[in-house]
Fold this sequence. Notes:
By secondary structure, the protein is mainly alpha-helical. The protein is built from 4 helices and no strands.
Amino acid sequence: MTHHNKQFNSFKAFYPFYLSQHQNPTCRLLHVIGSFLVILTVLLSIYLSNPWLLLLVPVIGYGFAWLGHFKYEKNRPATFSYPLYSLMGDWVMFWQIITGQLKLK
Length: 105
């Protein structure tokens, strides 16, 4: 497992590093699935007027992502060192993949 020591002063500087930690296609796919399920869970919570469902959001989002890192990417999730930039990276990567700007590989 790799550990991260570099400091980033901006998300723009961080994002190439983030992508370098997400090169495995299965890891990327698991991130996309987790992000999609997070969106569905939030929408379901609103539709059912059940805020308790929101407790599942971090479990679903991080569960899929961390499975991808530990089992397929074989690295330490950037979330542990860069929580905010990593969360932003998850959503930018999700958007870029679903819009075809970035490939699963």
